[in-house]
Amino acid sequence: MARATFLLDVGVNRRRPPNGGYQLLSGREGTRITQTSIAAGEDCMSERISAEALSDVIGSIYDCALDPDHWPAALEKLRKALAFHNALLALNALPSGLPLLIVSSGIEQKWLDLMPDYAADLVDQWGGHEAVARLPLDEPAVLSRQRTQAQIVANRYYAEWGRPQYLCDVMGITLSRDAASIGTLGLGRHETQGMVGTREIEAARLLIPHLQRAIAIGKVLDMKTVATAAFEAALDVQAAGIFLVDADLRIRHANRAAASLLLRGDIVSSERGTLAIRLRTSHATLALAVRQAFAEEAALDGRAFGIPVPSAEGRPAILHVLPLRHGKLRPDLSPAAAAVFVSTGAAPTTSDALAALFDLTAAEARVLAHIALGRTVAETASLLGVEPSTAKTHLLRVFSKTGTRRQAELIKLVDSLAPPV
User: Fold this and answer.
1) CATH 3.30.450.80 given to domain 22-220
2) Does the structural domain 351-417 have CATH classification 1.10.10.60?
3) Which of 26, 31, 148, 362 could in theory staple to 136 by disulfide, Cβ–Cβ 3.0 to 4.6 A?
4) pLDDT digits (tens, 9 = 90+) for 258-291
5) Pseudo-torsion of CA 217, 219, 222, 225, nearest 10°?
6) Which percentage of the chain shows pLDDT scores above 90?
7) CATH class for the domain made up of 223-348
8) Nearest residue to 241 (alpha-carbon basis) of 224, 225, 220, 226
């Protein structure tokens, strides 16, 4: 397994009030948080992020998919909306570890310069590489909920880098994890802001699919070219197939690679000028995603991220939907509702594809992966280290979400997405 640093950072030095209490930086003026309440994990975000603020953050995130120079402003907006003190977004190539994208907000350069010295300690802070690899892609990880206080304070990174800056907690989000790269976002809390609470976690859950989609599309595109040239002309030189479509999937423009895909006809096709996919569930997911992109991009959920489509050449192709009607950058590029990107490179496993199509949780997807191999519920439970009743509960939810009733039907559904031998 390639060693990849999980870059999660916290804090820039800020003095504590002389009376020993902590003044809340965001929320109601004059609110005080005692050291006791911080240790107890008091939730310090005064209210849920508003729908307007959420839409603004999401719009900024999608602009970054086309122009990476927008990431600093988007990260700053995200950090403030969720009431964090700082943030670090990193995308690193694997197995080399070379940085593809690094953006920070609220971190002084002197502390950024020191972070490479603590690479191993950053991973150990979360329990090691295996623990990091097990962190779910669809759920924010909170350090204070993953590790004990004794484990946190014993870590060299915290002792020498965090404690001097009065840092208290971290939220980590995995943005991408495949054979080619790993992407992470770390959001840090200062003692004056208190521990990460339920509100921050819920807000992060809403943002995760949009962040992951922007990163995935950014990796497919030669983003600098798209940001500096006429949009449709820039799309024509991209290696990935890209369709510009209306809300009803009517094709407004297809770049050269997309036109070649239409001629092949095994992944996508054009039916009277409308983009179509042979697999019904994939087509329905794409149609819903584009309608959501047209109406309100904040409504796009995990099912619209990485839509798998069977290919005659082998591994499934993956579709990504980028809304074009919102944000500051995108509305001026095209009158289309959305851009549909077709990636024929790295693809998820079949169980991952079904998880994307049917909105399975990480636990449900793990059970599905074993059942698809013909294992019993008891065997699956033993291999996953859970009770048989727990595995059965997850399996019943998989049945419900996929519209199947028996394991044989589920295996048949899995086989329908598997690449031909």
Assistant:
1) yes
2) no
3) 362
4) 999 999 888 899 999 999 998 787 898 899 889 9
5) 60
6) 35
7) alpha beta
8) 220
